[in-house]
Write a structure and sequence with these properties.
The chain is of the alpha+beta class. The protein is 49% helix and 22% strand.
Length: 398
Amino acid sequence: MVLGDRLALLTEVARRINNGIELEDLLAYVQEQVEAPIAEADKTELMVVLGSLLSMVAQNEALFAQVLRTNAALARLDDLSREINQAHNVEDIVRVAAAGLSELVGADAFALYILAEGLPALLGWDAPPDAFPQTVSVLSAGGARLLGKEGADEVTLGVGSLAGRPTLVELLRGGEGAALGLMIIRRPLGAEDIAPEVRPVVSALAGHLAVSIHNARLLAEMRRHATFDDLTGLSGRRHFFTEMRREIARARRDKRPLSLLMLDADHFKAINDTYGHPAGDAVLVAMAEALVEGTRTVDICGRLGGEEMGVLLPQAGKDHALMVAERLRVAIRDTVVAWKELEIGITVSIGVATWDEPMTPEDMMQVADQALYMAKAEGRDRVISESSLNTIEIAPPG
């Protein structure tokens, strides 16, 4: 057989191998193409050579398939990372991650845990009810306890199980490598092990989740600070005014009453000067608690600055507002703040304003503030409404 014929034969052999020919059929084809019969000894050697070629092709195909799976997983990871970065709360992060992991590894349930005082606490999940415990104990592959405490449901870092279901557990690590929490990926009963080439992708996803959860919690904390007063837990001034505008619009639309109470602690400077500012803070907290306990869930209580607080009363006319104000005044007067070995009494002065066209939030605040000033001037520890004032001057709009 000349060189050209040999090359042609080898090319055809390679093509048939790529098409998935069986070894016996390949040997028969080679026998047909050579000029003389193949001796049995040569046939055995040829079988080994052809078998090696077929094995090499099979390995290459497996490697190629693995590369394709890895590339597909990396492409999905890239998409997931973008979607997770666009999520601004834990609920959305969990939803996006759960959908991606269902596609990547066939997960049927997913949970995120965050470390709270050193213990993994369930933060968010996408799963049937009671699929995940409130806290877990994380063990290494060798059985050593890494996180959590004895008695909690145990999960193994990496491949393991929870309540008889196969799981994959990955730690969520911060920028310096410290554990922030963990994620648990649960798979259906009888599911095969996750392909080795996908495990690094899952680990990379855990890194993205750690960053996104950290950012989402920071954003939630910033929103909380912008909305609520840190000391009392009441609405902050800006949020209180936002709610006033919303309630005034609702009162105008539905033609329902709306009232505002302005409260100020009497002789508050003397409390700070006598007992110290921490004692003054304790007094403000006690006032806030009395406001929350003495109002409805639809009412809005806010700290407007210093010792001044406000209560917005939707669907409350003047008579109802006066009744609520008097009830709050008495409740606060009866409050005793325990401070060290002392007891501090509190009284408040309250001004009441009821909305009427064309009052703005600023107008209502001005009217209630004037009534509060009169309550202070008349001796404190009392309630004054705008109807008690001789003149009320409201600045014209604009």
